[in-house]
Design goal:
Number of domains: 1
Distance between the termini: 9 Å
Number of helices: 2
Protein name: Transposase
Radius of gyration: 14 Å
Organism: Streptomyces incarnatus
Structural class: mainly alpha
Order of helices and strands: HH
Helix content: over 70%
C-alpha cells in the first residue's frame, strides 16, 4: 500500500505517544499510574487506527 507523507507523519506522532505511555507503564510497574498509562496506550492505538483509516478514506494519494 502506497501512502503519502502526511500518513507517515500521523502514524509517527501516534507511535511516539504510544511509546512514551508504554515506557512509563513499564518503568512504574505495580503503581496505579502504570495501569493508567497502559490503558491510555491501548486507547491511543485505537485512535491511531481510526485516524489512519479515516485519512486513507479521504486522501486521494493514499486511497
Amino acid at each position: 500500500m502506497r501512502t503519502c507523507p502526511q500518513f507517515a507523519a500521523i502514524r509517527e506522532e501516534y507511535e511516539r505517544e504510544i511509546g512514551y505511555l508504554s515506557a512509563h507503564s513499564r518503568r512504574h510497574a505495580g503503581k496505579p499510574s502504570a495501569k493508567a498509562s497502559s490503558t491510555y496506550a491501548a486507547s491511543t492505538k485505537a485512535r491511531m487506527a481510526r485516524a489512519l483509516s479515516g485519512h486513507v478514506g479521504r486522501c486521494p494519494e493514499c486511497g
